[in-house]
Amino acid sequence: MPLPFKKYPIGIYTFEEIVGDNYLYVDKTAHVYNITHNFKYVFLSRPRRFGKSLLVNTLQCYFEARKELFEGKALAQMETEWIKHPVLRFDMSSLKNKKVEYVESGLDTLLLRYEKEYGIENPRKTFGDRLQALINAAVEQTGQKVVLLIDEYDSPMLEVFHDKEKLSEVRSILTNFYGPIKICDAQLRFGFITGITKFSQMGIFSGINNLMDISMLDEYSDICGISKEELLTQCKPDIESMAERMQYSNYDMVNKLTESYDGYHFSENSKDIFNPYSLIKAFATNKLGQYWFDSGTPTFLFEQLRHFKTRLADLDGQKVMESSFSVSPEVATSALPLLYQSGYLTIKDYDQRFMQYTLGYPNKEVRIGFLDALLPSVADVSDAAKGAVLIGVTTALEAGDVDAAMESIKAFIASMPYHYDNTKEADFQTIMYIIFSLLGMYVKVEVSSAIGRADAIVETKDYVYIIEYKVNRSAEEALRQIDEKGYATPYLSDPRKLIKVGMNFSSELRGLESWMTA
């Protein structure tokens, strides 16, 4: 019997359309009421495709007093007045362009739309003057204070992030545009600003003395995204439908979704947050794909990693101080703040005594997607070669054939172009870190990022592999370290066969020289 058709809001970010056409909607309206009654100016940082634009549109509908849209939602039980306010909403993602003049013309277009609406002719020269005139006109014509919504404020700056001259020009344009916010404070009811990064610390919003950053507050950790509780309640029918189609139990389906899309934490006591974009795509397609990562290529992040000479193996489990989260990318001394703000790393633990956070990949989707996209910049090999080594190593390890797995790795490294500098220990470590991480698409893999664990642990149905590798030393030494450090101890009672693997790479031979098992 075919399952009933369910509508999912793929690419739809308007509250009116989602609730009006009966798409899946996870109710965030209680948060809308709370932030609009507790604060005047609010800033929220969240990764891309995490529901920021939908939240902004929900705020717009609320302040436009569209009461009928909120029937059955939490906010309908909280609001009693429903005052209609003029709303000025600016989606700054529409200004993404590497040419500064396009940013200016795009901002001009956004302002002209409202100037026509409020009958403003011959607008003043500067963008700031024009925004101030708009606010004045809206208050005069409606008798109500203005609501100002700025979505993706940092998009124009991220587009020119690595061009200091253009970045300075774009920042100057935006600083001028936002300038009237402080001047018009008495005429504004509420202001909401979203973005990915913390460029705001560089003075763009310095005029707003009471800007409340709710990005890392526990009570708003689930203002965007889908919490585990919401998944198990509001999305229960979707889980059951997907489980039936994929022939999993409901329990196993939740575990699969958790492994792939859960794991985001935005504060020290954050709820477990699922990536909403990936989760909804999975429900719509009945497949566990890499949807979030495939929706955008983080080239600026790769440039940051190269700029700071970041070791990939150091990313998972990295400890940072609380102050690191508010650092603008422009003055950062590492790639970590941008990796966190962009959603490629998230909070895994918090040490209250030292106010220190431990970061890590949120989930399987992000780890595999990130390293898969990064591989071409590390090793100039084709997708076919990458696929061949992953499949070859996986099938060999599942069969208990270590020699075949090592031969696949050896051939893969040997196929790299001669100009690739794979003669240093760090280069081999990076390649192996990526290979074993990508194996996680098919088998369970833990890749070490701290002293005290083997370089890689691979688990299949019948085997557990403890793997350690050296450079310009010996496979025997690598094997001996597994025993001396007790890497295999946690698996001694495991019913599967335990195999210890020592590997040695040679910088002279530019590849895998030998391996031993025990």
Search tags:
518 residues, 15 strands, single chain, five-stranded parallel β-sheet, alpha/beta
How would you describe what is shown here?
This protein is of the alpha/beta class and 518 residues long. Helices cover 41% and strands 15% of the residues. It contains 20 helices and 15 strands. It has helices spanning 15-20, 29-38, 52-63, 100-117, 127-142, 155-159, 164-178, 180-183, 228-233, 236-246, 250-261, 276-285, 291-294, 299-307, 336-341, 364-378, 383-398, 402-414, 425-438, 475-484; strands spanning 41-45, 87-91, 146-151, 188-195, 211-213, 226-227, 273-274, 319-321, 346-351, 356-360, 444-447, 456-459, 463-471, 497-506, 511-517. The longest helix is centred in the N-terminal third of the chain and has 18 residues, at 100-117.
Short description:
The protein is an alpha/beta fold. 41% of the residues lie in helices and 15% in strands. It is elongated, with a radius of gyration of 26 Å.
Instruction: For the largest sheet, list the strands in their spatial order.
Output: 2-3-4-1-5
Helicity level: 40-55%
Helix segment tally: 20
The average pLDDT is 89
Note the main sheet. 5 strands, parallel
Structural class call reads alpha/beta
Strand content: 15-25%
Q: What is the overall silhouette? A: elongated
End-to-end CA span: 53 Å
> In angstroms, what is the radius of gyration?
26 Å
Task: Count the beta strands.
Answer: 15
**Which spans have pLDDT < 50 for at least 5 consecutive residues?**
none
